[in-house]
Amino acid sequence: MSSPEITAVELSKAYRLLNHGPTVLVSAQYGQERNVMAAAWACALELTPAKVTVVLDKSTKTRQLVEQSGYFALQVPCYAQIDMVHQLGTISQFDHPSKLEECKTELFYQDDFPVPLVAGSLAWLVCKVIPEPHNQQAHDLFIGSVVGAWADSRVFRDGHWHFQEASKALRSLHYIAGGTFYLIGDEVKAK
Ligand SMILES: Cc1cc2nc3c(=O)[nH]c(=O)nc-3n(C[C@H](O)[C@H](O)[C@H](O)COP(=O)(O)O)c2cc1C
């Protein structure tokens, strides 16, 4: 996507895209099949090389595509996308083959990476699965090595988030339960 606000993020700073604990969208593709689900249980794991974790339940279609392709992307959605995020997290492509159309989820690709990304998000991390069959089976835990990262420069630039300068529509979402989220709040600094 040739959108001027989408700028590359150094992989050594990629963990900061998740450090504030946002709800994420997980996208994946295998062949012609593409899907996206919501995930609250995503986390940074290592600085260098950048790694992340995400919990993908065995009931999800997205997990199947991740296992088949060996890739996934995490993206940080915003308040403007709240209804889509909740829908992507409450219906399964197993039951709704046209889930992405129903949820009005627009996808794009960045460079030559084989994973579709969700347009309108704040940040994107393309990850290559580091196979850990025991963790995947026993804990539904997937580890990914971050191979590409980008963010919307209106809210993340020079290695830092700048939510305080952005509109409410561009605040990240933090899931509680039952369709209730918090928006990220004010920046405060420790001494
Ligand atoms: C806000 C939110 C967060 C969620 N977090 C997770 C998660 O961390 N891991 C998970 O396996 N499912 C999570 N879910 C549930 C999946 O998103 C849901 O099962 C989804 O329908 C799977 O879609 P799919 O089968 O099309 O891949 C979450 C749902 C919501 C609404």
UniProtKB/TrEMBL annotation:
Residues of the Flavin reductase like domain: 16-158
GO MF entry, a single one: oxidoreductase activity, acting on the CH-NH group of donors, NAD or NADP as acceptor
Keyword Membrane included in the entry's annotation: no
Keywords annotated in UniProt: Flavoprotein
Domain of life of the native organism: Bacteria
Cofactor annotation: FMN
Keyword flag Protein biosynthesis: no
Family assignment from sequence similarity: Belongs to the flavoredoxin family.
Name of the protein: Flavin reductase like domain-containing protein
Lineage: Bacteria, Pseudomonadati, Pseudomonadota, Gammaproteobacteria, Moraxellales
